[in-house]
Specification:
Layout lengths: L2 E5 L4 H10 L3 E5 L10 H10 L5 E6 L4 H9 L5 E4 L5 H10 L4 E6 L3 H5 L7 E5 L21 E3 L7 H8 L3 E4 L4 E2 L2 E2 L1 H17 L1
Parallel strand pairs: 1-2, 1-8, 2-3, 3-4, 4-5, 5-6, 6-7, 7-8
Antiparallel strand pairs: 9-10
């Protein structure tokens, strides 16, 4: 089954529909410059309302390791996603502070970017850019057989085709389930339903 991650969650209304459709993961964005930024306190409140079957992922960009450790220790997040240019030393230090899975996000713009995938993390995420909402050139993934989360430009219009072509471990969507910058309950339901339809058709 293709794992489903709904990212950029910010409101109690979002959580209500998420608890209804039960994706595998949701994402809280703690990067200050993001329009989907959420405070620690708000994330804690939403996590308390989240169905226990759904894992909360914290998304960070070159953040202070102590901030990440705080969120893990207080059970506000269950998984860490690194979306900056955190190096091996940073990751190793982080691992001494936390004992939850780490996802490392790579921006894929060329074959060289594929070849540079070398971080020692539990999962990798392949994105066309940092939340740019664009899909990347699928030809770049020819011969790439690692498990990965697919992100960038996914929507109800293309998700079935992407899964059937690329067979990712999981899919990660944010802007594709929004209308005018806010999460759209109908799009969330539709997106999750389409992913599961593909899995059922296989």
């Amino acid at each position: 089954m293709t794992k489903i991650k709904l990212c950029g969650i910010k409101s109690e209304d979002d959580i209500k529909v998420i608890n209804e459709v039960l994706p595998d993961y949701i994402g809280f964005v703690f990067a200050g410059k993001s329009k989907r930024y959420i405070s620690f306190d708000k994330a804690k409140k939403l996590k308390n309302q989240l169905d226990d079957r759904i894992k909360a992922v914290g998304v960070f960009v070159n953040d202070d390791i102590e901030n990440i450790a705080y969120l893990v220790k207080n059970k506000i997040i269950d998984i860490v996603q690194l979306h900056g240019n955190e190096d091996e030393s940073y990751i190793n230090t982080l691992k001494t502070k936390i004992n939850v899975p780490i996802i490392y996000a790579y921006q894929i713009k060329s074959k060289a970017d594929i070849k540079s995938i070398n971080k020692n993390t539990d999962f990798i995420l392949l994105d066309a850019g940092a939340g740019c909402g664009e899909t990347f050139n699928e030809a770049l993934l020819e011969g790439f057989d690692n498990e990965y989360f697919l992100a960038g430009g996914l929507s109800v219009d293309n998700i079935k085709e992407k899964i059937m072509k690329l067979h990712p471990y999981g899919v990660d969507v944010s802007s594709g389930i929004e209308t005018e910058g806010k999460k759209d309950a109908a799009k969330i339901r539709k997106f999750v339903s389409l992913v599961r339809e593909v899995d059922n058709d296989r």
